[in-house]
Design goal:
mainly beta; 0% helix; 51% strand
Length: 119
């Protein structure tokens, strides 16, 4: 079974930091691009960050550039999202997702982890 298990969410004050993790199993991790998406109440899901298979190149949404960093550890089948300088507008459920290098769409999604930024 393909599984993506996200963790690390929580409540933090504005300006604080959180590190999300997504542990993958059931597929060849290094053959998949890994991404983080988020969805806030009443809003559409948006892509936050992606790390590709090719030399681990990365892409970020403009709203998080310079504050968030996505990394992957292929030995541990895990992708991380380090979130710094958090803002209230970062509040959302964060999902990890996996896309095979040859696939046009995301193949698997994690269950989501809640991030709340509030004073």
């Amino acid at each position: 079974d393909v599984q993506l298990q996200a963790s690390g969410g929580g409540r933090v004050q504005p300006g604080g930091s959180l590190r999300l993790s997504c542990a993958a199993s059931g597929f060849t991790f290094e053959d998949y691009a890994m991404s983080w998406f988020r969805q806030a109440p009443g809003k559409e899901r948006e892509g936050v960050a992606c790390i590709h298979t090719n030399a681990g190149s990365t892409d970020y949404a403009d709203s998080v550039k310079g504050r968030f960093t996505i990394t992957r550890d292929n030995a541990k089948n895990t992708v991380y999202l380090q979130m710094n300088s958090l803002k209230p507008e970062d509040t959302a459920v964060y999902y990890c997702a996996a896309k095979h290098i040859a696939s046009p769409t995301y193949d698997s999604w994690g269950q989501g982890t809640q991030v709340t930024v509030s004073s």
